[in-house]
Design brief:
Elements lengths: L5 E6 L5 E2 L15 E6 L30 E2 L4 H7 L3 E2 L3 E6 L5 H14 L4 E5 L4 H11 L6 E5 L3 H11 L3 E5 L16 H18 L2 E6 L12 H5 L2 E6 L6 E9 L7 E7 L2 E4 L3 H5 L10 E8 L2 E13 L7 E4 L3 H14 L7 E7 L11 H13 L7 E3 L2 E2 L5 E2 L4 H10 L4 E5 H6 L1 H5 L5 E5 L2 H10 L1
Parallel strand pairs: 6-10, 6-11, 7-8, 7-9, 9-10, 15-19, 17-18, 19-22, 22-23
Antiparallel strand pairs: 1-2, 1-3, 4-5, 11-12, 12-13, 13-14, 15-16, 16-18, 20-21
Helix pairs in contact: 4-5, 8-9, 9-13
Amino acid sequence: MAKAKITAFFCQNCGHESSKWMGQCPGCREWNTFVEELTDKKSAKRASDVRNGAVETVPISGIEMTQEKRISTQMKELDRVLGGGIVKGSMVLVGGDPGIGKSTLLLQVCRKLSEQEIRVLYISGEESLQQIRLRAERIGSFKDTLKLLCETNLDTVRNVIKNEKPEVVIIDSVQTMYSEEISSAPGSVSQVRESTGVLMQIAKGMGISVFIVGHVTKEGVVAGPRVLEHMVDTVLYFEGDRHAAYRILRGVKNRFGSTNEIGVFEMRREGLAEVENPSEYMLSGKPEGASGSVVACTMEGTRPILLEVQALVCHSNFGMPRRTAAGTDFNRVNLLMAVLEKRLGLPLGSCDAYVNIAGGIRMNEPAIDLGIVLAIISSYKDIAIDDKTICFGEVGLSGEVRAVSMAEQRVLEAAKLGFETCLLPQVCISAAENTFRKIKGIRLTGVRTVGDAMNSIINV
């Protein structure tokens, strides 16, 4: 008699297992995340190392501290996001939309590492060796310290890594890997969880740095169980419009560095080029003498980025005005327009309003509130703001302009790019007056309310 197949239901969000389908996951409380998969209890048992004898505990004071040695990728933007370089034995997950440049970025990393005589193993489950070679020819020349392998069997991959003993391993992608011990199809919750667990054991046990590429769903998150992001040390997301030139590498999780850093790249024919000065790149093409346009400053980690905030305000021909926000929070724009209508008496309730962060970049830091406010006022009154003026500050519901962090770094970046006037919260000037005196070539104008900010641009 044929053996009956055993099925189980797994949550795609957290990996919770259940014997029956449920509408809501009891683990993560998400709806409609359960999928059915075939399981075999006998073959699902993984071979694990069984330690005989007692396991000893170690006091925290008895652990010897050693400085982690990092491997530089020779790409400053990537090193910044990683926290200074690749940590030995770390596991990094790189996610992003199809065609955004994940494989291209990692192949460029392989080229930089091979030039340093670092042994790299690139394992692809999606492309043939000829396809990888064609892409490599476009990027540049490679040394023989880079080895390629096209394989999806996890046991074969594990044996090759143990025999080759590379220092860095690239897995492209984890959704294509499968283990014969799991009866479900590649890319399923069980296979992704099993593959990640085996690769993590290799990384920690052999001290090999592992990069894995993860596909994303239509919601923009890595496909598979959410436990995948919990298991790895670092999670990087590659963002940007695939039809635009720039790409942003953002750290979502990092056990070895800050999660606020970003790296900016430009997609070219020969691959991804680093953008060392994102502010100058974002401000290219800014119109001169146009109303509704102002330059604001935001912080991404320790890096100040200057960007152009655009607004278009016009009287509506319909009973319900239209509001649109691109690159920033839509609800935040509505809130700031309500503040202007209440505190300054501007009749914006009958106007259509369109707010845009130029360049396609998305920013949600409260420091760009003042830039949005000034752009809306400039467009409504049809008054052009001076091209050499920059602003930053958070706006409260009472119309006050509140302090923001790292004001000195923002002013220094503005002065370096040639701006002559900076509108910022008066509280920031009072708190660090001695520091601002050392910054030459830029005039600081402190504002306490949105009324002060409006008067400053009208007087200019």
